C-alpha cells in the first residue's frame, strides 16, 4: 500500500508516522509526478490558503483534482477538508471543489479555543478515541450523497463521500491509529 501525504505545508510528519506504523509505504508529495502510483493521498492540516496557493504554484492542483475526481481515495484533515470543500462560508474562493460540503473556517474560534474531546464513532472505532481540534472548521451543509460519520456539539466534523474522507480534527496528533486504519481500508477497495 502506497499512500501520499501532500507535503507543501502543515502536519506532514505526523501522518507519515501513523502510516508507517501501519506498514504503509509513504510518499511526501511535493511535485505532480509524485501523485503517480498512489493508492491514496492525505491532505494534512495547516493553512488552507497557503496550501491552496502552493498547490497551484507547484503544478499539483489540476492533476490532484483530476485524480480525486477519477476515484483516488483522499482524506483531508482540517485545512485539507477546506481544500476539498465545494463551498467555504463567507468566502467566494473555494479550492478544489470536489466534495459536496460547505465548511466554516475557524468555526471553533482562534488557537486559544483549540480543544480535545473523546467520541465513539460507529464504523471506525468500538470505544471512544481522542479528537483534537485546532482552529478547526466544521461542516454546515452536505450534499445528498455525503455520509456524516461524526458530530461534536451537533456540528458535523467528519464525513465521507465516495472516495473522499474529511475530518475537522487531527487524528495524526494522537497515538490512536483508528482513523488511519479506516482510510487505509478505503484505499484497499
Automatic annotation (TrEMBL):
EC number: 4.3.3.6, 3.5.1.2
Name of this chain's protein: Pyridoxal 5'-phosphate synthase subunit PdxT
Keyword Cell membrane: no
PROSITE patterns, alphabetized: GATASE_TYPE_1 (PS51273), PDXT_SNO_1 (PS01236), PDXT_SNO_2 (PS51130)
Active-site residues (renumbered): 78, 170, 172
Keyword vocabulary terms for this entry: Glutamine amidotransferase, Hydrolase, Lyase, Pyridoxal phosphate
Pfam families: SNO (PF01174)
Subunit comment: In the presence of PdxS, forms a dodecamer of heterodimers. Only shows activity in the heterodimer.
Pathway: Cofactor biosynthesis; pyridoxal 5'-phosphate biosynthesis
Gene3D superfamilies registered for this protein in UniProt: 3.40.50.880
HAMAP family: PdxT
Native source species: Clostridium lapidicellarium
